[in-house]
Amino acid sequence: MRAWIVPLLAVALGAIAGPSPAKEAKAPFIARSLVLAPRVVGDYRLADHGYDPSNRFAGVRLRYFGSRHPTVPIDVFVYPAGRMDAKDALDAEEKELRDSLGLAAKAGYYSDPAVVAVRTLELDPGMRPSASGSDELAPGIAAVLTREPLVGRSLLLGYRKGEQAQRSAGVLAYKQLYFFKGRLTMPTDMIEADAFDAFTDDALKTLIPAIEVMHDGACSERTIALDVSEKDPDKQVAALMQQIAMDAARGVDENCVPAKRYAKEKADTGDRDVIEIAFEPDDWKSR
Fold first, then answer.
1. Which of 42, 166, 182, 256 could make a disulfide contact with 219, Cβ separation 3.0–4.6 Å?
2. Helix, strand or coil for residue 161?
3. How far is CA 254 from CA 159, 175, 247, 250, 273, in A?
4. Are strands 60-66 and 111-124 parallel, antiparallel or unpaired?
5. Residue 125 and residue 148: Cα distance in Å, rounded?
6. Residue predicted with more confidence, 84 or 4
């Protein structure tokens, strides 16, 4: 076994350490979330954000502008989802977006809404161990070193606002137990279809991976099951190491952290805006 694997597993054990027993009994699945929004990402600058604590499951709206089209707002909505399959999350987001188009048309905000096209969009390529060394790694260790690609879904939309035809896009993603939805709209006479697609892709592939969500709560709890039927000590250790590493990898993906680290991130605003969503104990019981 390589010498660096032991310290790596020590980090993994630290990552899966849960809160104290007294807290475990009371903590909801997510007690608090921090939405960490960088003020500048590449060509895009954060202008403002909105959050209504009385409607916490609607989450946070972040509004960015880019220099390429400085008058066009790029809104990213970040709102709670919970632990779910990524495809199921995207399906739920797409249904919500389609339903909202119909409701907005009925309310008179615009007319003739249509979903013109739907496509898969890789927002972040992820990271994997180098090919030369990956074959030597145990599956659990490889899992710690792997970040799967963040794959979203892009919906090209069209509608009319008054007499003006509009190009619109909704880019959907699921990460860190939250839904992400990027929206931007431009008049058709302001930009051609291909240029609009390119602008949308660049904006949301830049912004969505850069915006982070961190949590404190029972989502940080980890359970390790020992296989007592396995009599070979070496196999027992290997299986335990794999569980620890893979569970730690899930913890990294979901970004559920111990209370001390959460407090540190909340205090360290740096070059980002930090918006906290605090949940009630019963908020997650039906989710």
1. 256
2. strand
3. 36, 7, 11, 6, 20
4. unpaired
5. 7
6. 84
Rg over alpha carbons for the chain, rounded to the nearest Å, is 22
258 domain-assigned: yes
Q: In the structure, what pLDDT confidence band is assigned to residue 19 with cuts at 50, 70 and 90?
A: very low
Strand blocks (E) in 163-286:
164-175, 178-187, 212-216, 272-278
CA distance 37 to 49: 9
Beta strand ranges found along 235-282 (DSSP E): 272-278
Which range marks the domain in which residue 152 is found? 5-278
Strands in the chain per DSSP E: 32-38, 40-41, 44-51, 60-66, 74-80, 111-124, 150-161, 164-175, 178-187, 212-216, 272-278
Q: What is the pTM of this model?
A: 0.82
1 has pLDDT over 50:
no
Q: Is residue 285 part of a domain?
A: no
Q: How far apart are CA 59 and CA 62, in angstroms?
A: 10
Q: Is residue 286 situated within a structural domain? A: no
Count how many domains the chain has: 1
Helix 5-16 and helix 233-254, axial crossing angle in degrees, nearest 10: 60
Residue 29 tokens, joined: 């699945």
